[in-house]
Amino acid sequence: MKLRILLLTAMSTLLYPQLQAQQLPYKDSRLTTEQRVNDLLGRMTVEEKVGQLSKLLGWEMYEKKEKYVGVSDKLKKAVKEQHIGLLWATLRADPWTQKTLLNGLNPIEAARATNAIQRYMLDSTRLGIPLLLSEEAPHGHMAIGATVFPTAIGQASTWNPNLIQRMASTIALETYAVGGKNGYGPVLDLARDPRWSRTEETYGEDPYLTGKMGTAMIRGFQGEKLGQQDKIIGTLKHFVAYAAPDGGHNGESVSFGERSLRHYFLPPFEKAVKSGAGSVMTAYNSIDGIPCSANPWLLKDVLRKDWGFTGFVVSDLLSISGLNGGHATAATAEEAASQSIHVGLDVDLSGSGYGPNLLKAVQQGLVEPAVLDTAVARVLRMKFNLGLFDRPYVDEKQVIQKVATAQNKSVARAVARESIILLKNEKNILPLSKSLKRIAVIGPNADNAYNQLGDYTAPQADGKIQTVLTGIRAAVGKGTQVDYVKGCAIRDTTNSDIAAAVAAAQQADAVVLILGGSSARDFKTSYQATGAANVDPNTVSDMESGEGFDRVSLDMMGDQLKLMKAIQATGKPVVLVTIMGRPLNLNWAAEHIPAIVNAWYPGQEGGLAIADVLFGDYNPAGRLPISVPRSVGQLPVHYNHTKPKHHDYVEMSAKPLYAFGYGLSYSKFEYSNLQVGLTEGADDFVCTVSFDVENKGSVTGDEVAQLYVVDEVSSVVTPIMQLKQFERRAIPAGKKERYTFQLSKEDLKLWNATNAWKTEKGKFKLLVGTSSDDIRLKGEMELKKDY
């Protein structure tokens, strides 16, 4: 009995700190979030507070040895010395992280790793504060085994926000299942210069379309309320105007005025913030001389005061250090930390911008304690709202039921299908017949899994990715012979075999030629500390797009044009399929190739989706979210430039080769019966625009009806036209559908000369069509008063 008492006493002594911690107010889920935040904040040392703002690189924080997955010594050291509060990309795998299918984590191992990390934080630290794990998730969770969807430029090409919300819900489900609670995305940058390497990550050139897509992503990620099962918070990237840098150079300065920012670049972020986005990431660039990571107007006045943002702001990787580096607005690292935290940048992605530098800044009086507390409270508030303190672990047994399921694959195929754009179909060469005796499938992107996935993609298991070649072979019967010849690489010209490609084409009844670009990272390429790829003339891979690979030209690289011309010269029916991350020069193809299908980077099910379109199992209805220029000399060439209208160049038309909103179908649609109704009230108005669309074709098809507005006379210069509403709807053959759009003062407002939002009285043209350059119906309305 005496021994038993001694043992119980010893156990009580060991467990007392843990029992005491569980009784602390911030551990009590019955209290409000604010009560818990205030209690915990009051118990923290300055060092612990600073640590909560450090988000370190996460893939170094676990170790894997045969069947064992646990925390690494690096995590233990970081927790002990820096008291870290967040990790980024713990489950990321790619050539930059040096994580492969062998040394990386499959989904079940990933859940074990994040559980081990959270268990260590709760059991081995003084206050037991769990980590917030952020993961890359722009077109699927960037982790081994996760479903890979089309990149954002393809998502936008669906013009279907409901489908994108469903996709985002699927990404959230997979990310949450393995322990991630924050997904990086959506990217809401407006792509105004396709030379820029990250065009594929954007929703294109238009603020309204980008705003609709971004809002759909946030709703899909986050659900109705923070902390829901299978939901994560999103991080809006990159705040702001990152995608229109001088010369197309990634991360370099932009020179827009406040009116351009408010009219074009800020609205997509505002819509996503007001949809409840939990986090915003600052951009690398400066705007008119002020770095985005030290811009009080952006982060205090616009984001928090004007929009009411209540989440936390995170830097892009190493961007705080950029203040005393590339931007040179701070003399020391301590000054850089002080500049960023004082403007409302809460979290440092890297751990090197804040960390010891922020601690020194506090100790030197460069940062007021209240400023530090505000940033820390924002992070803690999010952790409590996400339920991390109450539900820090994931159910490892549920992973297989949530990641890479057949249902998730079907969503990926649906997004890929709807993203495909039919650019040309001369003499209705498409759809191809499945009874063709012989088809030649040719080109560097015909059977290259990684070339169709885009940047921010993890290593993939053999057979998981459905290439165009596998898709075509799956679509046709045994009576059709499918021959494959690569012909050439994307960039490398040393191993081209155009003669073999021509020989295959000559034997075929039809040729499917798959060209374009690639953002596929490889282990030969070197990478910057930020993760961007280095351009090295001595290393020639397929990669010609993706972060860091800016272009001076938009021409197809390597021997691709040479291959295209040789195949066309055979006289065989040729269908060009482009798989790429940005608009490329299609001038020769548009003139000489009878059918062109653009698929961007269509994801893991892309090959099946492309085959569905090629053989008529799916009627394409994708629309361009970005203009395809004729020449880089036109840039910028976005449809909604400010007045006046462009005049032609000496050498060519000022119009793009393919305009924003453009896309063909296997059906023909007719528009009629436009009706415009206007009701003006004391504080707002309602303008109702209705019209009929009839499918005159022989097959059911989706039509994306688009409403553009022109402000005829305004107090400041406005765009020549602006997209204000759109809807994608399936219409059966021979049937007619009535579309109805409504406009209010919010849709027609402008930032006037006295720096205030105003919807001005006057006449507005209402343009309804199938694209920005194919207007079928015209109407007008006139406002009698200002709003």
Automatic annotation (TrEMBL):
Pfam families: Fn3-like, Glyco_hydro_3, Glyco_hydro_3_C. PANTHER family: BETA-XYLOSIDASE, PERIPLASMIC BETA-GLUCOSIDASE-RELATED. Keywords: Glycosidase, Hydrolase, Signal. The keyword Hydrolase applies. Residues 1-21 form the signal peptide. This is Beta-glucosidase. Residues 703-772 form the Fibronectin type III-like domain. Belongs to the glycosyl hydrolase 3 family. GO terms for biological process: glucan catabolic process. InterPro entries: Cellulose_Degrad_GH3 (IPR051915), Fn3-like (IPR026891), GH (IPR017853), Glyco_hydro_3_AS (IPR019800), Glyco_hydro_3_C (IPR002772), Glyco_hydro_3_C_sf (IPR036881), Glyco_hydro_3_N (IPR001764), Glyco_hydro_3_N_sf (IPR036962).
